Amino acid sequence: MDNAMTGPRGPKPKRRFSRNNIFIYGTLIVVSMYYLLPLYVMVVTSLKGMPEIRMGNVFSPPVEITFEPWVKAWAEACTGINCDGLSRGFWNSVRILIPSVTLSIAVASINGYALSNWKFKGSEVFFNILILGAFIPYQIMLYPIVILLREMGLYGGLWGLVLVHTVFGMPILTLLFRNYFASIPDELFKAARVDGAGFWRIYFQIMMPMALPIFVVAIILQVTGIWNDFLFGVIYTKPDLYPMTVQLNNIVNSVQGVKEYNVNMAATLLTGLVPLIIYFASGKLFVRGIAAGAVKG
Amino acid sequence: MSVVDQGLANAGTGKGKPNRLTRNLMSKIAALPMIMTAMVVFVGCTIWTIVYSFTSSRLLPKENFVGLDQYERLWGSSRWLISIQNLVWYGVCSLILTLVIGFTLAALLDRKIRFENAFRSIFLFPFALSFIVTGLVWQWILNPDYGVQGVVRGWGWESFSFDPLYNPDIVIFGILIAGIWQGSGLIMCIMLAGLRGIDEDIWKAARVDGIGTVKTYLVIIIPMMRPVFITSLVLIAAGIIKLYDLVVAQTSGGPGLASQVPAMYVYDYMFKAQNLGQGFAASTMMLLSVVIILIPYIYLQIRGNKNG
Q1: Is the pLDDT of residue A43 over 90?
Q2: Is B6 domain-assigned?
Q3: CB atoms within 10 A of CB A158
Q4: Chain B interface, mutation test: which of A20, A42, A60, A139, most B Cβ atoms within 10 Å?
Q5: What is the ipTM metric for this complex?
Q6: What is the CATH number of the domain that holds B264?
Q7: N or C end of chain A: smaller count of CB under 10 Å?
């Protein structure tokens, strides 16, 4: 763990431009270009006018920078008969996101707490089924969920989709919280019990404050996951409640009208902006989230 | 008060319990959402679909059982066969390329280099983006007139042809390019975590024995990282079977039926063509393929747990 104790791993650093280093950095830089290229293409295309796009190619930098495609993508682009741009999808996504993230994390953190500190007969069995459920292709559950939501009167509405996100976010989030609570020393829990604190009191006064970093990881995980969802949005909501990803796809892949590539790329970049900002702002926490989900899941 | 008592009894010696059902009651109530999700949605809905895949349901689910009819029709449908073929091609290529790229990048980043964080951020950021965004960007880059093909032709190579999204023979590889771009960063991250978990002494020992760096990776490190590779494999495979949004955004399954995938077949038959039975049968086949992947994985996990 402690690098200062074990010393550097590689051979003793020789010249900075050894053949080895040139190979390593060269490869990394070339590969980086492949990863960065689409981001670059999105940005430059969204800043060009259509005549310029028709004359040049996707990679050429803009000669005359214009922000008109951004305005158009946000406020004027058409899907079907609605021509109020992506802003509609953006606000829909926000409306879906806030309750979904809150509910799914609340439910999963309590689940994880119950599973690690208040085990009951069968709790591990249910947990294992939950984790296996994360591997079941969504497709097999899509239709029965439609029936369930219809029975509850939630099909097509906002809360139906919130419920679906809560259900499908549960395996990974429960795992995340369970593992974290399990790592908290048992003595703390026992001391609270001796002092007479019950299930909820221990949760709200001891466990929740201690788990704040994990809550942040969970929020990052859920915000990006739910923002990027397409399948559930298209199935469980009606067109006027479509999230941003669905509306974006409808705008760009619509067969009517002339293709405005600059508006399309501005719209695509706008949709990607939320997860990108979260990704670059959260840094290592994002990595921690996916690692928690991936390595043990 | 009663809750506390029950909990204390539970934490105590474990003798003379009150009622089995009310013991730890609050915990059971709190875990109810999990129990419902596991039993009603994950188990219940899955079984429901499997059962109804043996019926002749069309517009609405009906209980007239027809045996394996839906499956026979499914495997006789050229659209399904194309979907399976695409998935196999995509799957095999994606699996190999993602593992190779993921491991290579992780190994390069593990060589004590400068700007490690910057490089890692660059390789991982596509993973934060949705498949829709990924698909639409690559649709634009692969545009035959303005994209890669147009650029190379502009350099004077007039006969150069690279239009995967419009050529039915290679369309799935156009999707592959985007899929790898989006997903390889995740595997790089997992591999890097695995590499960091390898004991420094292994490297020292290898150096003392005069084994070269590349050879050390191939002969010593990779075999040691078997669990990490298996986890990556399962993750990639589970993602491949779910492949849907990317294709919707990039090609909508076209040209013609050339880039159809099973998830698209399920969606179209369930929600567009009003042929529920076909959708149920197709999604059951998807589940079956996941089960085939998972069983050896679970077996290995259990065996691994027993051994150590």
Answers
A1: yes
A2: no
A3: 17
A4: A139
A5: 0.88
A6: 1.10.3720.10
A7: N
